[in-house]
Amino acid sequence: MSHSQSAPVLALCILAAGAVYPASAATYSAVAYMTSQNAEPLGIAEASPGVFLVQAGGTLIFSVTSQGVTTILASFADPPYTVESAPGATAANSLFYSSIAQTRVHGGSGNMLSVSPILGSEKTYPGQVLSLGPVAGNLPSGNLFGLVYNFSNATNAVGTSDVDGHMAVTYQFPGTDRPAAPIYGADGNYYGTASTYGTHNGYFYKVTPAGSFTRVATLPFQGDGIVLQGTDGNFYGVQGPDCTTQHGSVYKMTPAGKFTTLHDFGLCGNATVNSLVQGSDDKLYGVTQGNDLIFSLTTRHIQGAIPDDER
What we know:
Blueprint: E1 10-12, E2 26-34, E3 41-48, E4 51-56, E5 60-65, E6 70-75, E7 81-83, E8 89-90, E9 96-102, E10 110-115, E11 123-124, E12 130-138, E13 144-150, E14 155-161, E15 167-172, E16 177-179, E17 183-184, E18 190-196, E19 202-207, E20 213-218, E21 227-229, E22 235-239, E23 248-253, E24 259-266, E25 272-278, E26 284-289, E27 293-299, H1 300-303
Antiparallel strand pairs: 1-2, 2-27, 3-4, 4-5, 5-6, 7-9, 8-9, 9-10, 10-11, 12-13, 13-14, 14-15, 16-18, 17-18, 18-19, 19-20, 21-22, 22-23, 23-24, 25-26, 26-27
């Protein structure tokens, strides 16, 4: 594992994009394209106002400002390691946590890691059979939470970790289910999406801190994509393309279960959205696979009040 020096790996391309769906609800624009070092973006998180951390190519974690200045914070050899957390979360101690893992096979292992915006701050924690990969966020207690992967039986769970990498399982998913990383809801419960092998529809779930599971809603697509809760209380997520009829998109779902597509990215290739976050400016930010695009997306519902019929 090694550190590399600050380097401009992005070609900043700020565009006024006119392709918006639906036009009355959202404004879409391209923020930056990644054009070198095979740095395909797989995850994005805001470390501080105007500074984002991006996982790229499964091997790099770097920061990027809104002006396109980038700094590589961590770099890994693949094989044997890949970055799992796409990219991770900032804990109460102000360190940014992610995770790395050997190839996901029985007998593998995972490691938590932490970095700060300061070069040379990377720290890895001892490997273990249970790995918090991906790290999804931090809790009021100061602990982290996310998906706990069990390398001994290849199953996933909602779980937690302290800042020294010690894991605990909250809810174990069946081996047939493929969950996406959970979020910590405003009501103190965990929420996320998942799909079951052999089915065409996913589901939206809730897990309490005590481990009680509820299937909240059935989704009109395989539901293993990213989801977040906006400052308006609604949930926002990503639908993946299947290259036949299912388009890649960013959607909104109200707590009552009303589903709305905010932006349609089309089929295959550039339609895969690998990450979605809400910035301090209330815009949604994400990255797309294929054209190596970092985008922003605004909606009137994030910026303003929720209509009465959607409450």
